[in-house]
Amino acid sequence: MVKKHLDIKVSGKVQGVFYRATTKAVADQLGVKGLVSNEADGSVYIEAEGDAPMIEEFLAWCHEGPDRARVEHVESSEGEMKNYRNFEAVKKNMQP
User: Fold this and answer.
1) Fewer CB within 10 Å: N-end or C-end of the chain?
2) 87 lies in a domain?
3) Could you give the residue numbers annotated as active site?
4) For the domain that residue 68 is a member of, what is the CATH number?
């Protein structure tokens, strides 16, 4: 099975609506590994790895989000595999 890594940025009303917690639950259900964190600009940043079909399903979910979210824009790009062991909701942004 082909593995895939996506860097995803979700914009809109995606903070304070349980987006990170719900994203983790969906990722766990699909067997997707990686992380999700809130960004200073109000967006949510996600790194997702897994089998290509599951990543596509996960990305489709990112366009919807949880009930209280209002997703306006989703950017995604393929990246290098980092071989995450699980999916983690990060409290703060860990990117440089």
Assistant:
1) C
2) no
3) 20, 38
4) 3.30.70.100
Answer whether 51's CB lies under 8 Å from 3's CB: yes
Which domain does 20 fall in, by range?
12-81
Task: Output DSSP code: residue 65.
Answer: -
Over residues 18-50, the pLDDT tens digits come to 999 999 999 999 999 999 999 999 999 999 999
Residue 8's CB is within 10 A of a number of other CB atoms, namely: 23
Number of domains in the chain: 1
Amino acid at 30: L
Task: Please tell me the pTM assigned to this model.
Answer: 0.93
Q: Return the axis-axis angle of helices 19-30 and 52-64, rounded to nearest 10°.
A: 160
Q: How many Å is the Cα radius of gyration of the chain? A: 12
